[in-house]
Amino acid sequence: MDWQSAATAAGRIAGAVTQDAPRSVRAAEALEELRALVPFVGASIAAWDETTSSHAVVADSGYRDAQLAHLNGEAYLQDPTWHVTVSRRAPVPWRDMPFRPDESWIIRESLRPSGYREGMTAPFFRGDGSYAGMLTLNTDSATHPHAAAVEMLGLLSARMAEMVSGPVPPTGDGDAPEPGGLRIAVSASGVCTPLGGEPTPQELLAALRREVARGSTGFLVWERGERAPWHVRLPARGARPTTVATTVATAVRGPVPGSLSRRELEVLAGLTEGLSNQEIAEALHASRRTVSTHVEHILTKLGARSRTEAATRAVRDGLLLSA
Predict the structure, then answer these.
(1) C-alpha atoms less than 13 angstroms from C-alpha of 275 in its C-beta half-sphere
(2) Handedness of CA 279, 285, 287, 291 (dihedral sign)
(3) DSSP state string for 97-108
(4) DSSP state of 207
(5) Angle, helices 262-272/288-302, rounded to nearest 10 degrees
(6) What is the pLDDT of residues 231-246, one digit of tens each?
(7) DSSP readout, 108-151?
(8) Burial of 275 (C-beta count, 10 Å sphere; 0-12/13-18/19+)
(9) How are strands ordered across the β-sheet holding 192-194?
(10) Residues of the chain with pLDDT > 90: what percent?
């Protein structure tokens, strides 16, 4: 499975998870959408009950009662596959476990005798880092789940956590958007795929591809005719996962600090490039005097004492208008 197909399937799972429906309905529909990502034979979604320190099955498909009990009972909490998955805080297929699959009682005594050749547990963690539940799945093919599918299920962790336990607390790290915001998965090659069911403007996706290539971590996208721009954020390069080729951008539409106009943002972009007023004027097809006036307004609105200070704040606060 290629990355684009996996991201598209993950988007449909996210749509099922976030729909307005009872938890059990959302979980069951998420499992149905999961088949396009991983052709499983058995799968279940469980919520973690902190009062009893145990899992409660929310939805399942394909497992026999005994297997379901093993995977969601006390035995699994003692199994090495569980400890590896939770310690890594990411989905881990059997093939990537740091031990032979037969060293796991669950795999050796319950799953392999039933014909399963591969399997995986995907843990769900809330925005505050607390554990919320898990997805377990098994296939009759040694090649599934593919690496792209494993990656996508990792990206869906917070959404799945919200489904099984309630809203995800805001973290401030750019992973969970504010109300009305968007989450967009971005591959290393620049493929951008919305992770939710919300419509995403093509102009926003095009700008995101450009800015990722430039190494940007924050910028603005202001569509023609709109009153306010999108504020887009990406994890800093040093904070991005090094074991996967994907990061997640968030985009929220809102006002600009200092109420800077679109034209003033265009001038501010020139300041960040170290251009003179004359050079900015030529680039924007404006007069030097007009640009000088815009610069004065920018300094006043941002409370900056110099062009350099204004440019520094623009980079720091993501005030660069993508063009």
Answers:
(1) 20
(2) negative
(3) SSS-GGGSHIII
(4) H
(5) 90
(6) 998 876 544 443 334 5
(7) IIIIGGGT--EEEEEEEE-TTS-EEEEEEEEES-TT-S-HHHHH
(8) middle
(9) 192-194, 182-187, 246-253, 230-233, 218-221
(10) 46
**Cα separation of 90 and 150, whole Å?**
9
Q: Which of 97, 92, 234 is nearest to 149 (CA)?
A: 92
d(CA 323, CA 210): 9
252: left (phi over 0), alpha (psi -120 to 50) or beta: beta
- Pick from 234, 144, 142, 252: nearest CA to 196: 252
Residue whose structure tokens are 């006390």: 74
Rounded CA separation 269/322 (Å)? 9
Size of the chain, expressed as the number of residues it contains: 323
pTM metric for this prediction: 0.55
Contact (CB, 8 A) for 61 and 42: yes
Q: What is the number of other CB atoms lying within 10 angstroms of the CB of residue 140?
A: 14
C-alpha R_g of the chain: 24
Structure tokens at 95: 């093939």
CA distance 35 to 62: 12
- For tokens 């599918």, name the residue: 149
**Burial class, 182, CB count within 10 angstroms (exposed 0-12 / middle 13-18 / buried 19+):** buried
pLDDT above 80: residue 191: no
For the chain, where are the alpha helices, taking DSSP H only?
Answer: 3-18, 23-34, 65-72, 74-77, 80-88, 105, 147-155, 157-165, 202-214, 262-272, 277-284, 288-302, 307-316
**Are the beta carbons of 55 and 72 closer than 8 angstroms?**
yes
